## 1
Amino acid sequence: MLSEILPKLQKALETKTFDGSLKFDCGEAGVIVLADGTATNVNQSTDCTLAISQDNVVKLLSGKLNPMTALMMGKIKISGNPAVAMKLADLLKH
């Protein structure tokens, strides 16, 4: 499932900039890392990490899960610089 998300994020990064680095940590399912203008599934250290389930990352990126609601409900846990996570909203705008 995460492998289906990577090309979509990469396409978004071709037309929009994303400052900083961000990791979606989906535990056993793997990671998605946004860094240096690319999206990859190679685990690396980032400015901000979002611990989130694979299902919820799909919902988040498709606009079916509100990030603030998810945070309040404990569906997302942020570590590192939360300002980087806030920049994600600009990248996801359709």
## 2
Amino acid sequence: MMKTADMVCALIGMLFSGGAFAMTLFFKKFKNVPVGPEFFPRWLAIGLFICSVALFVQALRRPVSADKPAPSISPRNKGIQRLLIGMAVILIYAVTWELVGFPITTPLALFGLMFLLGLRRYPVMICFALGATAAVFCAFKFLLGIDMPLGALENVV
């Protein structure tokens, strides 16, 4: 059962990565820009494809006698519940970051995800969430020249 599940997941991963890679072929091209917006997603798609092929080959090489039953996916499973909550946090982050602003939504999302993963060292979590937000904001603003949405802080900064 696990062998079949791994092979199906690997095939889905290969199809998904192929679709994602194909989508990057239609990204807008910019003149005099050595690294365009397609660079990072394209390499992520390539990485996913390589990992999916590795999973498929590993499943093929696994003897049937060593096959275990595939775990079921149930909403009662604590791991699945954390996954769904994490996806909800990311969805809320994506929907609100333009309106509320990157400097407000990002540390809240990072703190929430760290809490969801089981971290409970609150001073460290706060410092990391604020520090990572500041580092990303400065990298985009000053190194890349890309303005991040400020939302409610638009008139302040």
## 3
Amino acid sequence: MSTPPTINLTRYRLIRNGVFVWLTLVVLGAFSFGGYLLNIPKINILEHTARNLYFHVPMWFTMMAATGVSAYHSFRVLQTGDYVRDIRARAAAMMAVVFGLLGLLTGIVWARFTWYVSADIWWNFDPKQSMAAVQVLIYGAYFVLRSGIEDTRKQARIAAVYNLFAFVTVPFLLYVLPRQLESLHPGADGNPAFSDITHPVMRLVFYPAIIGFIGLFWVLYTQRVRLALLQRRVDHDDDLL
């Protein structure tokens, strides 16, 4: 029976603590000292809801990073048949769904209080919103597929193939297609890019926010992988793949 790899706890704790400190500074930069030292001017329509840029957009960057990690490990599953790679692919895909849902939630709230406040609606099937929702559903289907296959080896390989297909759709659904359609989102057909309507000072918080949330993904992803490896060890199931 093979021994599953272990997580370097010292490195994990060091990075985890660093990520929490980093994100704390991001939040402070967005709402606390950012209100004095990094104060942004009033932006037409968005006003100070523009601060949601520090949270909404990084969620999608983080989701894309998670799908990339998941796809890489699925590719390695097909190459090696290593069950640890399957665990990593599954954990990263789960985090992709979580951050995708957070991206949808922050987007819905943002749209409600900027575009639809007079109409009192929360969802208007804007192309970018709809395609983002489809993307999350595609990754949700990955877990439905896994749950329908009992054989562990078969489950890992079929899920890996589907996961690679899902990853291919990411740039098209989250970036390419929405930019070709009429949308209220910045950067869509006929609309200026977000960089054209936001103040440059916002980048001092925006870019660190992206790094921070990707770091948070790594922390949560590593936790889930560690828990799964410990569960396999308890079940004495290490040689399944």
